[in-house]
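Re: the request from the purification team.
They wanted to know what the chain is likely to look like in 3D before they choose a buffer screen. I agreed to run a prediction and write the result into the notebook, where they can find it.
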Amino acid sequence: MIGGASPGRAAEPDSDPQLGGTPTSVKISRPGFSNTQPSNLLSGELNQLKSLILNQNKAIEDLKEKLKQQESMIQALQKQRDLGNQDAKEPSGNTESASLLPLSSEVAAQAASSQSNVVSAKKDEKKPEEKPAPNALSVNGFKFSGDFRFRADVQARSGNDIAGPLQNVRARYRIRFNVDKDIDPRFKFHLQLSTAPINNQITNDQDFAGMASKHPFFISEGYLDYHPNSNIALRGGRMEEVFADNTRYLWDDDVRFNGFQQTVKLPIDANNSFELRAAEYWLSNPNIAILAANSPYVLAGYQVGQKVRDSNLFHPGVVLNLGNGGAWKHQLVGDVSIYRNPNEIQLASTTGTVPGASNPMGFQVLVNPAIGLVLSGPTTGVGNATTTPGGAIYTAPDFHIVRASYRIEHKGVKLGNSEMPLWFNFQVSRNYGASFLRDAVMGSVNLGAIKKPGDIRLLYQYAIKDANSLISQFTDDDLGTGSGVNIEVHAVRFDVGLTRFLQWQNLFFIQHERRGNNPDELFFVPLRRGANATFRYLGQLAFTF
């Protein structure tokens, strides 16, 4: 390149051998002085200078064009590499992806030949299988993911005069398959298919039983999510409960409800926020305008000749999140679960009929018409106190459950060369629809999380759930074996990360019953105080894909 000549000094252009220039020196006299060279010699030097400048400009343009071509080739190479990663997860018969592989090699060769002029490619790039697996495979905007769990389940209790012996050692498995689709920036569709025994609403596990019969695969979740912005979310369909936290307290982690949810997040500042949550779930649809005398609804306390209304759950509450940007995070939750006509829940879990009447049982009128199948037995999960042994009327007149929860979490406690998340959670609730044995409490402490091979997780929990405190049919069935409430439980968990997609999980429970029957208070429970301790072990391999 040549700079303009300054007054009083001649310009001396430098040559650039890479651009095709040759060393040249030109002297131009100052104005007002005599020229020491002939005019024709000066004219020749100027022409030579102009030619040099043109050659250099052309060389620069050629180099720019080469840079653009090489940049395009590198982008094409990166695109082909990403397609190759995706193709590695698809069947080998995918001809469309296979046809792209030679093009990827050609582009790689062209990019490598020109990297000395543009950029050095990484020679030690990791192979696709060494990279962390994505959360979901995406095809035409549909994202697919899921998990498979293979479990050994051991339940044991020695028998006595209060309760008989329990010895059930079985293998079980669970498969869940998710499909997600962003319809547009505001709407999202989600579907989950899962294995499940159809009459058990609090588990998706299938036993290794039934001879060689095929096991069913059902819709576990299906909803449409509307989020006009990052702070508002409205959801309708079949979904996880709006306050579900997988702590084995209010809800079993497999229970799903049909209805609507609303969440509004109100940011306080960059690290703190306040949430308003609410949910409305439909549990039944009796569709009975005038109740007949021989209907099983009579067993649940409904009056002959009157309308039988739906059973519902309404669940409003608030969440306060503090310190999200720091080492310590805090979460406070307050909510109330309001059940309407809860005896229909218990009726669906009984086999009773009206004396002297030839009529279907409770689960046959509450569940069978809704799912379009004929169940062979009632829905599971009993445990609450009822007014008669095995009856369809809860001892608690209502279930209006007020709950408070506090969780404190540290993002990483330094132990050796590892940082392990630490959190503590305390929850307490009271059913204001009952006058006695209406409280529940749980404390949990957790160290570690499974994010990569070699990670470990340790968890201890202590829980008390009295017989009138929570709905047994919806609370956790592993913490409470054979009875979701009227229990005191110690629980220990130990998990190990084996690969990036596989965990080995171990859960151990020791359960004691809280209260026995009391006819004077119309209080009868299926598993009474005085029964020997129930022990349960769950050892499982959990895969994600």
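For the purification team: Confidence is low (pLDDT under 50) at residues 1-37, 87-134.
Please add any questions underneath this entry.
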